[in-house]
Amino acid sequence: MGTDNEPYATTVDATVSDFEFSTDLPIDSGDFFQLLTNEQTRYVLYLLTERGGTVHLEEITDYFDSSSDEVMLHHTVVPRLVDFHLIDYDQETRAITPTPICDDLTPALETVKILETEPVNEFLEEMN
Prior knowledge:
By secondary structure, the protein is mainly α. The protein is 64% helix and 8% strand. The chain is built from 8 helices and 3 strands; from the N terminus they run H-H-H-E-H-H-E-E-H-H-H. The chain has a 3-stranded antiparallel β-sheet.
């Protein structure tokens, strides 16, 4: 039994060692993982941390297909990110700006992005 499991253990150890994930998150880890369950939220956070500056809501809504996606983004995703103090949102200009707390999440978000199975790189390339 010992020799059959050794190659698997080596593979798992090598895979896990490829990712550095800090447990020093600026928000509660449960809240962080709950935010990550929503694809739109993840994509907005990826975009903000990659650009490092303000993004207008129209830029993001153009990527998503349906009007229900736009409604969810505007009425659910953005308010949640504001509630967690990850973004500042200017309703007049519809501008989303990452806060220092969001900036502090960048290492963790980079790790999550590596594990992403959705076409996140296509999204980010289209947005840039």
